[in-house]
Amino acid sequence: MMAGRAVRRLMLMAALMAPAAAAEPELPERIDAAMTAGDYAAARPLAEEWLKALEDKPGQKLEIARVRHVLGSIRDRLGDHGEALKLLESAAADYESSKASGEEMAACADEAGRAALGAGEFAAAERWLTRAIAGRQGTMASISRSALGEALLKTGRADEARREWEHALTDAGASDGARCFALRGLGIHAHTTGAWDAAVKQFRAARETAKALGTDAPAMLAALDGQTGQSLLRAGRAAEATPLLESAAAWFQTHGGSSDEKAAAWNNVAALWLEGGQSVRAAERLSVLLESPASGAFASTPQAITPWLNLAAARQRTGDAAAKDSLTTAEKLAAKHLPAVHPLRIQIALTATAIAADAGDRASAKRFAVEASQHAVRWMEQAAAWPDESRLLEFHATLDAVSPVAAFAAETPDPVAAAVLATQGAVPEILLGRRRWESRAAKEAVFAWKRDPDHAPGPPARKVPGVEELRASLPADALLVNFVRWRPYQGRGVWDAEGRYGALLVSRGEATRWVDLGPAPVIESRLRRIIAACRDAVAAGAESTGRASIPWQLSNLFSMLWSPLGVSPDKTKRILLRADALLHFVPWAALTDRSGLTLCEAYPDLEIIVFPRAAAAPSATQRWRVLAAAKPPSTGLPDFTDPLPPLISPSLLQSLEEMPALPGVAAEVAAIRQVAGGAIAVETPEANEAAFALTNTKDDAPSVIHFAGHGFVCEEDGENGPALLRAGLVMSDCAGGLRDFVSGHPRPPSSDGLLFSADAAALPLAGVATVVLSGCQTGLGHWQTGGQLAGLRHAFLIAGAGTVASTLWDLNDAAAPVMVKGIYRQLAAGSAPSLAVWRAQREWLTSPEARKLTAGMRAAQAGAWTGESGGWRP
Q1: Rounded to whole angstroms, how far apart are CA atoms 295 and 745?
Q2: 715: number of Cβ within 10 Å
Q3: What global pTM score does this model have?
Q4: 3-class state of residue 653 by DSSP
Q5: Closest of 793, 751, 755 to residue 772, by C-alpha
Q6: Most buried of the four, 114, 273, 449, 560, by CB within 10 Å?
């Protein structure tokens, strides 16, 4: 908009200097008038006429370059980005050879960068916009930086993009236009990284600034309304999003604007209608957008892929046979314009799956479903190596790539297993692994383990075994039970949002089996009741009876999750269990069959694993490190004013203020000492973050690190970071760390008194056999369909710990030392760390002390604990 006015000024300059203009002196004025009115379709033939007149005259190189510059800008606004880029690159070359002014060359480079953005040529966009910035200062540099931020974001470099937009905001000075572009860019960054509320805040700030843009204000306000609506929609606030999206689309329909802006606005509205079940309305609008004579060149541009895909989906839902043709157009455009690895390819394959399924072509549907998952796997592998993680977070929030394959699981379980192995839990594992790598790079001079040849420079590659490789690596006597939450196909392009659970059973020498376990809401409703009942029982010491009792509910869940698997304890001694979604919170050991026998009594060797791979054996040295944080963090907490420290939300701060002292911690430490006796050394350093990382080498690592204190988990995303990275432990120096922050001397994240999951993932725990997190709810975290739990227990496994013991609900302060003592008794006796918690639960459930309690209270106290390992031991 502001850039458009600058181009028009250059155009008038060229008109005065070009002799050919004398033949028709009103031509430049007519072009300027059309551009000012936003009628670029009328401006284009006039500019082409002007250019032809100049090209017929010798010695007009600079003047021709100027008119090509103008025509390139016009064609870019009309959506013909590829042709615009050619014109602008030609103009730039002639400017340079003709010794044009620096401002002319910088303006042309800026326009070329924007055209390259529209054409999807992001490397070219970065190159041209960098040249533009080098030739500009202040406001104009700010505008080019905002465009460069968009180019960087398109290549997955969100952190660099954010820095450009922040720099652009600084350079903008008092310019409302430049500030508006920079604020909009920061909103786009927040939207892309999944911080929807933060995005809405930035877009609204940009909108307030845009009101001062004069004749450009209405177009910018409409564009910002559309972007705000998108973020509100993604945040689940459809009622607020609808009027904004519809008003933006209506403005562009009435007043013009670029074809890209108009198309994007109507495509957003059509997607909203699709989501709301108004498929006929969406199909009609998208058909006008793409198939009418007015669509012009837009229908064949990269920006048209998503609208064509939405049109295919809308037509499919209305039973229109033309859906397949619309999808074919999207496929052709994708083949021409998209890289081999791109998330839109996943959506195209999913739509093809649905169309084939509706046509009764089950073989093609199966093939497209497998293709969708393969595209997802390739995309995640690429995203894992990107400099930032915005696309991973978006994937984590919106896509379950296993679902389309699982619809055919009974027929082809191996492709399902391949998709599960590659996608389940990938995003948290990659994110936490990246934190680990980043921390290692920062501490290279401190920790010797950084020089371990197993850890090459750069973000960690994710190695996922294939089905046959997995089967061959399993212990000969083991059965892997891998649970999957998936969505069946309902027809007419609709995948069941409520979902179902299933289980893959993999073992050596046998074909993979798939068992459908039933609707996810039924299973999850039962599980939530069990969790609530167990929490209440532990907190109040009382429980319900009859069908509401804990034993009855555990038996009911056993019949839902375990009985259908047909796993006989007589034939299968060793079980490897891998959970998904809400099943991470199942108290597996306490599940009870109809006879009252618990799962841990029936299967003495059951291991809950996180990663589908063999894990390195930890050091066999028995040395235990115990960190006790019994004092309440509320003692000494400072009064806060904004800003809060990184990752700390207001709700977490309130939780810290309400945490009580823990008198049972001393008894817990005494129980560990009693088991250790004089044979095992017990270290008791101060419970701070450094105590988790006192060792430099694997050989010097303790066999066990035990933390007794408060844990926490954050449920909401926000400006303080994604929820999946914000579970944590409260160290003994928490209050001191927060006081230092308030006083203006913040400590580094490794010593600020709060150990977040990202901090835990970066710890040097190679060789540590077991980490015990004895605190309330230390096993909770953020979960997503198709993903492993993101929380403390998995972060410690990524850090190298062999097994992590944690808790699913609040512990009984008096009973906790009893279970802890049982875990350490198993470790001292030589039980594998992966089995220590399971066997301790089994031992306690059959003890005289437990028999004195009600069946529900026994289950609640034993089921509170869960032990997970990073894989099976070789």
Answers
A1: 58
A2: 12
A3: 0.77
A4: helix
A5: 793
A6: 114
Q: Say if CB 288 and CB 307 are below 8 A apart.
A: no
**Dihedral over Cα of 466, 468, 474, 479: its sign:** positive
Q: What does DSSP say about strands 605-609 and 865-869: parallel, antiparallel, or unpaired?
A: parallel
Residue with tokens 């913040």: 746
CB 352 within 8 A of CB 368: yes
What's phi and psi for 47, nearest 5 deg?
-65, -40
Assign 251 to helix, strand or coil.
helix
CA pair distance 628, 774, nearest whole angstrom: 10
Q: Are 125 and 161 in contact (CB under 8 A)?
A: no
| Residue 705: other Cβ atoms inside 10 A | 26
Tokens 């529209």 identify what position?
Answer: 118
| Residues 65 and 95 sit within 8 Å (Cβ to Cβ) | yes
- Chain mean pLDDT for the chain: 82
Whether residue 616 is predicted with pLDDT greater than 80 in this model: the reply is no
Task: Give the β-pairing of 728-730 and 754-756.
Answer: antiparallel
Cβ atoms < 10 Å from Cβ of 48: 14
Nearest to 805 by CA among 671, 680, 707: 707
CA dihedral 827, 589, 846, 556 (to 10 degrees): 180
What is the DSSP annotation of 713-729? -----BTTB-GGG--EE
Q: What is the pLDDT of residues 343-400, one digit of tens each?
A: 788 889 999 999 999 999 999 999 999 998 888 888 777 767 665 565 566 555 555 6
Q: How many residues does the chain have?
A: 874
Q: C-alpha distances in angstroms, 377 versus 382, 418, 421, 499, 784? A: 9, 10, 10, 21, 17
Describe the crossing of helices 158-172 and 176-192 by its angle, rounded to 10 degrees. Answer: 160
Which residues partner with 575 through β-bridges?
479, 606
Which ranges of 276-304 does DSSP label H, i.e. alpha helix? 279-291
CA distance 210 to 208: 6
Residue 606 one-letter amino acid: L
**Which residue in 184, 209, 220, 210 sits closest to 199, CA to CA?**
184
CA dihedral sign of residues 659, 663, 668, 670: positive
Residue 185 has pLDDT above 60, yes or no: yes
Cα angle 799, 805, 807; round to 5 = 120
